[in-house]
């Protein structure tokens, strides 16, 4: 198992898998809070290091200045994402999930980690557990006393509520009787045509005595359209350098030699040179002419540096959806028999 000194010297160094392929750079290391030994290391994966995967290091080895783990590159790239607390800790649940993904017996590692704790820490845990049991027994006794008192208070409240309900029922019955008596008096004093209507209306309070106001009130509901967003990959972009050939034209000044005759008269100064020949004869002089020719050669020069930058743009998009809503209409059922 690696130590803190060994793992810290390998940060920002390449991490290789068991297939010999480079996975990425080891960026962060997570230590056990109890033993202080390194448990996990994070490695940047994905295009341009956009993703970060957790890799267990209990079986990792340091080789030639880099870290090597017994997992393939595809395995590490598909590791599940985990949540890190604000203090930079991994929960036991997240550790179990990662261990399960890598096929490691996480429970055995956690038990061995607990056994490696110092003896005084385990003794303090046992004393704390014993004190907690004593505290729990005292709390249970107090809880039973509180439960009995609460039950007595609840029974008293139930009896009071029952009495209030009976009084309310008696009051409603008396009001219904008075309303029925008033309705009968109205029906007897009114003409016959109006007495039928009064008799029809007199049924309404009796019919509504049990249902109350709920028969006259309806709740209308409707669906609301809520739109959320999800992030998904749309394309992959890579930098690819190719060599293209193009024609270029440059104007180059070239020099050449030409010959022409120059006639000079014979004077006293040059007569000696001119009369070097004593006889008339034929003669020939050869003059070599020169000219410049273009010579083409190419050199490679760096012109610019190109890198890939990702920018985020926001655009407005209209989203349409179908929602349902309830409508309330008034319908009246007329009794034709009473009209006749």
Furnish the topology, listing elements before pairings.
Layout: H1 4-8, E1 14-16, E2 22-31, E3 38-45, E4 51-56, E5 61-63, E6 66-68, H2 73-77, H3 92-101, H4 106-115, H5 119-189, H6 192-211, H7 271-274, H8 336-339
Parallel strand pairs: 1-6
Antiparallel strand pairs: 1-2, 2-3, 3-4, 5-6
Helix pairs in contact: 5-6
CATH fold call of the domain at 4-115: Photosynthetic Reaction Center, Chain H, domain 2
The CATH superfamily label of the domain at 4-115 reads: Photosynthetic Reaction Center, subunit H, domain 2
* CATH secondary-structure class of the domain at 4-115: Alpha Beta
Radius of gyration: 51 Å
Outline, from the CA principal axes?
Answer: elongated
Taking pLDDT < 50 over at least 5 consecutive residues as the criterion, the unreliable ranges are: 119-126, 134-146, 186-214
Strand content: 5-15%
Number of strands: 6
Major sheet: order of its strands? 4-3-2-1-6-5
Commentary on this structure:
- This protein is α+β, with helices and mostly antiparallel strands and 340 residues long.
- Among the domains are: 4-115, Photosynthetic Reaction Center, subunit H, domain 2 (Photosynthetic Reaction Center, Chain H, domain 2, Alpha-Beta Complex); 121-206.
- The protein contains eight helices and six strands.
- The chain has helices at residues 4-8, 73-77, 92-101, 106-115, 119-189, 192-211, 271-274, 336-339; strands at residues 14-16, 22-31, 38-45, 51-56, 61-63, 66-68.
- Strands 4-3-2-1-6-5 form a six-stranded mixed sheet.
- Strand 1 (14-16) and strand 2 form a beta hairpin.
- Helix 5 runs antiparallel to helix 6.
- The relative contact order is 0.06.
- Mean pLDDT is 74; it is low at 119-126, 134-146 and 186-214.
- Residues 115-147, 155-181 have a biased composition (Basic and acidic residues).
- Residues 2-74 form the PRC-barrel domain.
- This is YsnF/AvaK domain-containing protein.
- Residues 218-329 form the DUF2382 domain.
